[in-house]
Amino acid sequence: MRKKVIFKGIALPWLLLLPQLVITGVFFFWPAGQAIYGSFLREDAFGLSRDFVGLENFRDVLADPNYLAAGWNTVVFSSSVAIGALGVALFLAVQADKAIRGADAYKTLLIWPYAVAPAVAAVLWLFMFHPQIGLFGRALNGIGIRWDYQVNGNQAMLLVILAAAWKQVSYNFIFFLAGLQSIPRAVLEAAAIDGARPFRRFWTIIFPLLAPTSFFLLVVNIVYAFFDTFGTIHALTKGGPGQATSTLIYKVYVDGVQNLNFGASAAQSVILMAIVIGLTAVQFRFVERKVHY
After folding, report:
1. What is the pTM of this model?
2. How many CB atoms lie within 10 A of CB 228?
3. What's the family (predicted)?
4. What pLDDT band is residue 221 in, cutting at 50, 70 and 90?
């Protein structure tokens, strides 16, 4: 029998919730409110004067071809990172879940990269793929493949996608492995006795049972690709060459910090927040219908 806890009065429940409410209010609602307020203003570079301009910042941003290019870069980047990180993590989790020698060591090594900061992970990839000093960069040039992500936009985009996806694989791996270990072995053994081959067992039994985990990770990975990859892009390419790797989150930084256009930067952050909230709502509205818990 489970004992049901009933609080006497409302003071204690609110007191227990207070730390989380304070953190959420200070670090999310307050900055979000400031961004929304700032998106309707136009300030000088020194913040000495402010003028209310209504929706003019939004009109200027949406008419900027560089911003539209950054939006397309974000679509390519975020979808590639999410699909790549989820696919590789699922493959590694399936392999690590097998009864093989040294499986615990493999699992530990696959989890470690998640502890690496995004900027540090980007520097590691920089040392590997730098055209002059990188191990793989020099090797590619040595075999006749012209590799220089500093001047080739497609190569730069490929590099930041690989670095960002590699950083997220460990996080996805943890959840996929936990989901695989929660699947009853009796179900898989019964399917094997019935003659189902490993590939068929995966697509008809394992993958459907991982649907809740996959849906959760899909939402998390899209949010990660939109927001948490700034450090990776900044350390590797700084949005270049040209605007080839400039995403929406990086454009917010460029206009707000480098160009000191605070109104446009605030408007871009509001648009980005609305896009992510909208994508999350769409996923819960349509994708979750196909998830069986």
Report:
1. 0.87
2. 16
3. Belongs to the binding-protein-dependent transport system permease family.
4. very high
